[in-house]
Each structure stands twice: as C-alpha cells, then as structure tokens.
C-alpha cells in the first residue's frame, strides 16, 4: 500500500511534470511532495501548476501537516523534509550537491517517515541528485519509478538513480501517470 | 503488553545521544525537528568517522573537545546580510514609522548566527536615523558563531550578494560606506556594533531578559518541533511591549502556534506580526 509519493526533477522538470500532475483527479487521495531545482525565488511553480491541475498545489510553510490529495512544492532556497508524524520541516542547511532544495534530502527523510509505504519518482535532470535518496527508499522497502533516460530531456539523473537502485522500474512519463492513477483504482 | 512499535536501533541511539548532550553539556536538542536533526547527526557521524551513534555518544561523554565540534554540525550557520530583501524593505517602510514614535528602542535578534542579520539591522537603523537611540540584543547558542558576529568580518566574495540585497532592501547609501577591506576580507565598521550586546541565550532553556519593541527571529524555529516553537514564541510574547513586532523567516508562520491569538498579521507576506493582546 502506498501512503505518499515523492518526486524529484531538475532540467526539463516543468515539461515532465506537466505530463503527470494535470492528469490527477481532484480527489486523488495521496500526498505528493516535489523537489524541483530552480535557480532562485520566486519559483512560480505553485501558480503554474495550480492553474493546470485539479489537485491542490501549494508551497508549504514550516510544520504544515501533510494532507492527502495535495501537491507540495519545496520552496526555493529551503530543503523540504518529512517528519515522523507526517508534518513538514523546512531547513536552510547548506545546499547538497549544489542544490537547495535537494531531492536526496526529501527522499531520505520521507523514507524514514513512510518506510515501505513510499513511492519515489525520479524524473529528468542533468545531475546526480536523487540517486542516494532513491537508494534510501529502496532500503526502507519502498518503490522507485524512474523516467526512461532514453526519452528524458536530460538523462543523467534518471541514469544515476537506475545505476544505484536494483529494483527501480523504468517508465515513460505517460506510464508514470498511469501508475499513479492505478494506485487509486481498486 | 506494550503494543507500540519498537523504534529502529538508530532512533534509539539518537535519542540517547541527545540525552547525553543535554545532561552533560546542557545543550538540549531533544525537541528539535527530528528529521533535520537526524540528517545532520548522520553527517557528523560520517565525517567524524564514528561507526555508530553509540560510539559517538561515548566520545561525547568522555572527551570535552567533542561538544564544540558536534555543535557545529547541529546548529546551522547559513545566513546573509539583508536576507530576503523584501523583509527588510517592509520593516523600513511599515514598521520603522511606528518605531520612530519611541524615545528609545530595544530590538532582540534571536539566533543571530554569524551576525549578518545584526549588521543589516544596524545599517538600516543608521540610515533611518534611529541607531543612536537603539539597543540591539543579539543572541545565539553557538559560541563560535557569536565570536564571528562580534568581529564583523566576512569574506570579500560574499560582499557582492550583500550589496545587491542591501539595494533591494531599499538601502539609502552604498554598502561600501560601512566596511573596509583588508587581506581579502571585509571588516564592518565598529560604529555599527557600539549599541549591540552579543550574548549566549537559548530559546530552549533560558528565560526572557528584556522588554523590547521588536523581535526578529528568522530561520531558527524551523529547526524546532511544534512544542518547542510554542516555548520560543511564548518568550517573544513575554518580551514584547504592547503592539510590539515579531518578524519570522519567510516560510515560518504563527498559524500553528498556541500563541497565534496573541498576534495579528502586520505584513502578511513578510511574516511580520504585531502583539495584539493586552
Ligand atoms: C540558519 S541560522 C539563522 C540566521 C539568521 N537569523 C538568518 O535568518 O539568516 C540559525 C541559528 O539559530 C541558532 N540556534 C539554534 N538553536 C538555538 C536556540 N535554542 N536558541 C538560540 N539560537 C539557536 C543557530 O546556532 C544558528 O546560528
């Protein structure tokens, strides 16, 4: 059973996320936490995707409780972490692999909080962020989906995640969206 | 029988390590946001080359040199001058007109780190003609950070972003008026800290020490859990005069606080609050 979804994306993120998030119905029952590497504040991602999506899209404040059917974008300049009680902590710690927010930081804390009930998704990007976090999700018994590097805008990030996680599945963006929709049909 | 799930060994070890730190050295991180404290402890364990947190705890208890090193991992010293320029602009335009009406002012900067926020305030107050009548209390728990703050010395390569922020914050002069350069570093003018008292103060365990018109506590409480945030906000509430102001970090909020009712949003988008209770 999946309780929460985490997504990491870098170069090409907006296009890739546009193929996934707008397909989710308003009553999609899982929380989705997203880290996108953006150069600086304000990122505008929240406004952009609010306009395109049926699900609620927010940029959370510190200590917000995670709610179902809501997409949380990490605020520019802050790491986004999940606490064991499923609330959000933000932090202004040093960048990790030159990135703040960092995908690894989100994935590792979410793996601790949700264990085997976490689904991690690594999308397009030209760096290695996310692979360490994907490994943590795998180690906690969670699932990993990776955008097919062959069709991704930037292949490095999916490739790095695949190299590190033996159980990761490679899917197209469409198939990733189908998978999310499949989680809620029963 | 106990039906609680057994915590992971690592979580037990972390709890014991934090207990040891609190009992032996009075640095109490037990109510810090667990996910981020865990991340930083893992970093410390890797870089200080301990195989387990239990081994680290042993070293911490028996070797006094460890505590300072661990503190540098546990407290995050990331800051900038005029960080979030729009915050300082809002203070200048909307809060300072109120502060002007007081014959003398006290300002508390809690969690001042290396002092970037303190010098930002001092410069802004000087530009507004208020520094003469202001006392600034700058507090932190990290003694090494307080030493840097007192020195007012920063690497030159940080000056470009400080200067940009100062301009965007509505700076009335050139930042270069306030520092001299030497040996690749910028040394901020002593005048700026004549009215500053730097001191060791913990929002976890210490009490209120003064009455003030403004508290700025930015990006400190994000490291606390909710009960500890409530304690800190309680201190600010107690310290503030009637209609006093509280400024938080750009993603911090009183929405989840026990003390929310004691404040009104003064500049909503900049997380500037005003004490509203009697
Ligand atoms: C990220 S820095 C914030 C610096 C500055 N206020 C800003 O926003 O740029 C956090 C600071 O909080 C301090 N701190 C952590 N725990 C504290 C406590 N219990 N009481 C006071 N300061 C604390 C740390 O030592 C560190 O200097």
TrEMBL record, chain A:
Its EC number is 3.1.1.61. Residues 1-186 form the CheB-type methylesterase domain. The keyword Hydrolase applies. It is an enzyme of class 3 (hydrolase). InterPro entries: CheB_C, Sig_transdc_resp-reg_Me-estase. The active site is at 10, 37, 129. Keywords: Chemotaxis, Hydrolase. It catalyses: [protein]-L-glutamate 5-O-methyl ester + H2O = L-glutamyl-[protein] + methanol + H(+). This is protein-glutamate methylesterase. The lineage of its organism: Bacteria, Pseudomonadati, Pseudomonadota, Alphaproteobacteria, Sphingomonadales.
Automatic annotation (TrEMBL), chain B:
This is Chemotaxis protein CheR. Residues 2-254 form the CheR-type methyltransferase domain. SMART domains: MeTrc. It holds the Pfam family CheR. It comes from the Bacteria. PANTHER family: CHEMOTAXIS PROTEIN, CHEMOTAXIS PROTEIN METHYLTRANSFERASE. SUPFAM superfamilies: Chemotaxis receptor methyltransferase CheR, N-terminal domain, S-adenosyl-L-methionine-dependent methyltransferases. Gene3D superfamilies: Vaccinia Virus protein VP39. InterPro entries: Bact_Chemotaxis_MeTrfase, CheR_C, CheR_MeTrfase, CheR_N, SAM-dependent_MTases_sf.
């Amino acid at each position: 059973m999946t309780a929460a979804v985490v997504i990491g994306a870098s170069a090409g993120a907006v296009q890739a996320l546009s193929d996934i998030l707008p397909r989710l119905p308003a009553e999609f029952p899982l929380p989705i936490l997203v880290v996108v590497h953006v150069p600086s504040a304000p990122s505008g991602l929240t406004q952009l995707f609010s306009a395109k999506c049926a699900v609620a899209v927010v940029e959370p404040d510190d200590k917000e409780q995670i709610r179902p059917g809501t997409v949380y974008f990490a605020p520019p300049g802050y790491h986004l972490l999940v606490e064991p009680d499923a609330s959000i902590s933000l932090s202004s710690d040093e960048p990790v692999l030159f990135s703040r927010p960092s995908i690894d930081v989100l994935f590792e804390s979410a793996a601790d909080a949700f264990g085997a009930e976490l689904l991690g998704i690594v999308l397009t990007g030209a760096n290695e962020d996310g692979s360490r976090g994907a490994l943590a999700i795998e180690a906690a018994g969670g699932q990993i989906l990776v955008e097919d590097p062959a069709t991704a805008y930037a292949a490095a990030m999916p490739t790095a995640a695949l190299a590190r996680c033996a159980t990761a599945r490679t899917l197209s963006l469409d198939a990733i969206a189908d998978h999310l929709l499949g989680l809620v049909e029963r | 029988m106990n039906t609680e799930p057994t915590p992971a060994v690592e979580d037990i070890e972390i709890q014991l390590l934090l207990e040891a730190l609190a009992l032996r050295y009075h640095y109490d991180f037990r109510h810090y946001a667990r996910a981020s404290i865990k991340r930083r402890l893992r970093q410390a364990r890797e870089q200080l080359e301990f195989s387990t947190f239990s081994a680290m705890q042993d070293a911490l208890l028996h070797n006094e040199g460890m505590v300072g090193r661990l503190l540098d991992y546990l407290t995050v010293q990331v800051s900038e001058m005029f960080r979030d320029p729009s915050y300082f602009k809002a203070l200048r335009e909307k809060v300072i007109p109120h502060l002007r009406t007081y014959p003398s002012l006290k300002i508390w900067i809690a969690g001042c780190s290396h002092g970037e926020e303190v010098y930002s305030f001092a410069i802004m107050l000087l530009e507004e003609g208020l520094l003469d009548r202001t006392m600034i209390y700058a507090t932190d728990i990290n003694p090494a950070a307080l030493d840097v703050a007192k020195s007012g010395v920063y690497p030159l390569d940080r000056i470009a972003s400080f200067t940009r922020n100062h301009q965007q914050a509505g700076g009335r002069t050139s930042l270069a008026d306030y520092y001299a350069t030497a040996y690749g570093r910028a040394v901020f003018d002593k005048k700026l800290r004549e009215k500053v008292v730097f001191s060791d103060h913990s929002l976890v365990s210490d009490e209120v020490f003064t009455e003030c018109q403004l508290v700025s506590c930015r990006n400190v409480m994000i490291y606390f859990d909710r009960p500890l945030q409530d304690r800190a906000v309680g201190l600010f509430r107690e310290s503030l005069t009637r209609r006093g102001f509280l400024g938080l970090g750009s993603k911090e909020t009183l929405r989840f606080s026990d003390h929310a009712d004691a404040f009104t949003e003064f500049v909503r988008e900049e997380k500037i609050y005003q004490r509203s209770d009697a």
